[in-house]
Design a protein that fits this description.
It is a single chain. With 168 residues, the protein is of the alpha+beta class. The protein has one domain: 3-Layer(aba) Sandwich (Glutaredoxin), CATH 3.40.30. The protein has 6 helices and 9 strands. The strands form 2 sheets. It has a 7-stranded mixed β-sheet. The chain has a two-stranded antiparallel ribbon with strand order 6-7. The radius of gyration is 15 Å and the shape is globular. The two termini are 24 Å apart.
């Protein structure tokens, strides 16, 4: 499992973008993790699935709300990673109004999630292999902080915890 001080694993995530005002899609577009994080500070949070209750009601909205404060604390980009396809992540981005605030990145085959060792097996609940709920602050490719939630919890991967860590 990934830990503080480790390099973020290289993988290709997918991002589904839209043309502002037109509603036409562009993508999905590949995001090569190592290229996208080079020289940047990234607040990355991951969650079990798009449109799920805690993720939609608390996790994503918190990062959208604290976006400006995170940028002021030195965060260059905020990433949301989920084991969903890029089309689902694009629809969720629209619904959550993340444009220009949070990059909604799809890990459709769970390659990135597997590489971090932060998988969550929800097969018994009909959801298959997913990501655990966590957040991490990444500085130039290295994990600076890592906050892994316990089963069914939402206590340490929230935007306010990340903001305090970015300021610290």
């Amino acid at each position: 499992m990934i830990k503080v001080g480790d390099n973020l694993p290289n993988a290709t995530l997918m991002e589904y973008s839209e043309v502002e005002g037109e509603g036409c899609s562009i993508g999905p577009n590949p995001v090569e993790v190592h290229k996208a994080i080079a020289g940047k500070t990234i607040a990355l949070f991951a969650l079990p699935g798009a449109f799920t209750p805690t993720c939609s009601a608390k996790h994503v909205p918190g990062y959208v709300e604290h976006c400006e404060a995170l940028h002021q604390a030195g965060v260059d980009e905020i990433w949301c990673v989920s084991v969903n396809d890029a089309f689902v992540m694009g629809a969720w981005a629209r619904e959550q109004h993340t444009h220009g605030k949070v990059r909604m990145l799809a890990d459709g085959s769970a390659d990135f999630t597997k590489a971090t060792g932060l998988t969550l097996d929800l097969t018994a609940r009909g959801m298959g292999l997913r990501s655990n709920r966590y957040s991490m602050l990444i500085k130039d490719g290295k994990v600076a902080t890592l906050n892994i939630e316990g089963p069914g919890k939402f206590e340490v991967s929230d935007a306010q915890t990340m903001l305090a860590q970015a300021k610290g």
